[in-house]
Request: fold
Amino acid sequence: MTYTKDAIQLPDTYIGDYTYGVPIIDRLYLGCKLTIGKFCSIARNVTFAFWGKHQMGDISTYPFCGFTEYGWRPVTRTEVFGEDTFVGNDVWFASNALILQGVTIGDGAVIGANSIVASNVRPYALVVGNPAREVRRRFSDENINKLMEIQWWNWSYENINKYLQLISSPNIAELYEMWKNNIK
Reply:
């Protein structure tokens, strides 16, 4: 398996261990960071977009930048800056998702197919649609708090491997107790 961090090596792009899939990273704006955590699953045609920021508070939304002998000069790549995008750990992106700049996607979230994510996503939320809206949380608040506390994705490779059967099960209470007694 090819991991994302081995396939994509771009400036201002940070990808965690074991994340797989090759997203499209479409940058018009310089100086904006994309951070994707560990153990994320990225399906086909997932796009991280760093474009489309126009001044909606101005009379015109056109990106005027000065006048030249050829007329108005639009903003160039070196004159605009985007917003950082942050993706937590263990996030699943289904096919054709579009992630707009400036959002934070929490640990354990699921982004549905063909969704357009224009605002932040809570940890362990399932979001779908255009614009993407939360339809439910994957677990109860109590269990989400436990998962956020144990942060299994930060465990050593040996511990992940040792307790993989629990990590791959729905038994959060048992995983939490094992963590308290053996890893914490």
About this structure: The CA atoms of residues 20 and 166 lie 21 Å apart. The mean pLDDT is 90.
